[in-house]
Design goal:
By secondary structure, the protein is mainly beta. The protein contains five helices and 29 strands. The strands form eight sheets. It has a four-stranded antiparallel beta sheet with strand order 5-6-9-10, with no helix packed on it. Strands 11-12-13-14 form a four-stranded antiparallel beta sheet, with no helix packed on it. Helix 4 crosses helix 5. The protein is globular, with a radius of gyration of 22 Å.
């Protein structure tokens, strides 16, 4: 009944002029606390040991561009301080089978380049390799095995055998240039790794397990033991982040036995791909029978509301249903992706999964990623069926949200409904602070396929 709490952006109060110029020097590792509520919901707090989860007390071996060299007074300051080399900010957190909590990845802050002799420069956020475990019985953090790759904003999935699968993340967020690995520059970490809780160690998976994915990719464990990527994640709309992010539109499953990904199709659209994937990608763009002239006419409307886009489509002779599904298809940036409660078949087996995707910023299907700046109110349900290693996939639209929502947080309730909380009315990564907060929660009923507005929160909370 207790809650483990991780702070973020610790040290922001130390910034005097500019967070971009100073945060690499003045930031400190994030703090943790444990919250308990008594029978009357009165709170009490406990301080774990160590407070910052203990990563990299002697500094982090950062992958810097300048590699410590002085270039006309400009240096990297990665080794200036060790107080911000192991922040929990943008780690992923998962529960282990024994009740402990595991945090993987996180942030090393520094300035690159910096100014020699001054605590100023250009901030960099580097993903770290650490994995750390919180013991709920002793309220202590301990370090476990390091990953091969530093990851900022990865995703974790507990597999059927209890091992933990990690994918994506980025090693350098603001300046993703890797002189020793130029092919990996300008994109997220494509290599995946597997953690064995018994051995406390990570193993890098073979190259067949590599995949380009958005930050914080939306992944789910399927009943057959495969891991399903549901074409959602952090996309940094509308400017993008990775040169290969068009691949993020493709839903896929990972088979832990063969250590191989299988491309299934362009998210939301009824066309299957074989394992070649990219060779057939262009054909998915024809699913709504749009001509090139029609596509060109529609591109000018993609940053406007879906209503305006539908009006333009009607003028061009494109059906509203086709266009609604096209908008719902493809990668959804900063969206929810929630597995609805599983239902057994007549034999008592679980072979069908329904994944609810609501809100976020669409890619409009006719575009590569990233999508626009404004979120959508659309709700898409993807049905994934498993028969051994074979996977079926189809999508349908459900009732829309009562208002478009960027980065809402979904919670499955005991009665099978889904609540969504918070978020914003535009992409908050582009201009932080300008995303209008959405305080009214909504409830999705899987039986009716409709959303109902619920209570309104007292405080504005716009991020996930």
């Amino acid at each position: 009944g207790r809650l483990l709490y991780l702070n973020a952006l610790e040290g922001t109060e130390n910034v005097e002029l500019s967070i971009v110029a100073e945060f690499g020097e003045v930031s400190v590792n994030d703090q943790t606390r444990v919250l308990s509520l008594d029978e009357n919901d009165n709170p009490s707090w406990l301080k774990p040991t160590p407070l910052d989860a203990g990563a990299n007390p002697d500094g982090n071996d950062s992958e810097t561009l300048l590699n410590g060299t002085d270039l006309d007074g400009l240096i990297d300051t990665a080794d200036n301080t060790s107080k911000n080399d192991g922040a929990l900010f943008c780690s992923d957190v998962i529960g282990l089978a024994n009740g402990n909590v595991m945090a993987v990845g996180g942030t090393d802050y520094y300035s690159e380049p910096g100014i020699d002799g001054l605590p100023l420069g250009v901030a960099e956020l580097e993903g770290i390799k650490n994995s750390r475990i919180f013991d709920e019985e002793t309220n202590t953090w301990s370090q476990s095995g390091d990953m091969t790759f530093g990851r900022w904003y990865p995703s974790l999935v507990t597999m059927g055998n209890g091992n933990v699968f990690v994918a994506s993340g980025v090693t350098k967020l603001l300046k993703p240039v890797y002189p020793d690995e130029p092919l990996n520059s300008g994109r997220n970490v494509v290599q995946t790794e597997t953690y064995d809780p018994c051995a406390g160690a990570w193993t890098q998976n073979p190259s067949t397990a590599d995949r380009s994915l958005p930050l914080y990719p939306r992944m789910h464990l399927l009943p057959n033991g495969h891991i399903f990527y549901n074409a959602g994640g952090q996309a940094f709309n509308p400017f993008g982040q990775g040169y290969d992010q068009a691949l993020w539109n493709i839903v896929a499953s990972f088979n832990p036995d063969t250590q191989r990904w299988n491309d299934i199709g362009y998210a939301g659209l009824p066309l299957r791909l074989d394992e070649a994937g990219l060779g057939q990608l262009s054909s998915t763009l024809n699913i709504t029978n749009l001509s090139l002239d029609q596509v060109g006419s529609l591109l000018g409307d993609v940053l406007d509301s879906p209503t305006d886009l539908l009006t333009s489509a009607a003028d061009l002779g494109v059906s509203e249903d086709d266009l609604r599904m096209a908008i719902a298809g493809g990668m959804r940036g900063s969206t929810s992706s929630t597995m609805l409660p599983l239902k057994p078949d007549a034999s008592g087996n679980y072979n069908e999964v329904e994944l609810l995707t609501a809100g976020g910023v669409p890619s409009y299907a006719v575009l590569t990623n990233p999508g626009g700046y404004l979120p959508t109110d659309q709700t898409r349900i993807d049905t994934v069926t498993t028969n051994g290693d074979e996977i079926g996939y189809e999508s349908r639209l459900a009732g829309p949200l009562n208002q478009p929502r960027w980065y809402g947080t979904n919670v499955v309730m005991p009665d099978g409904t889904v609540m969504v909380f918070s978020g914003g009315n535009r992409d908050g990564v582009v201009a932080p602070g300008l995303e209008g907060p959405i305080r009214t929660a909504e409830q999705f009923n899987p039986e009716t396929g409709e959303w109902t507005e619920m209570a309104t929160g007292h405080r504005a909370r716009t991020y996930h």
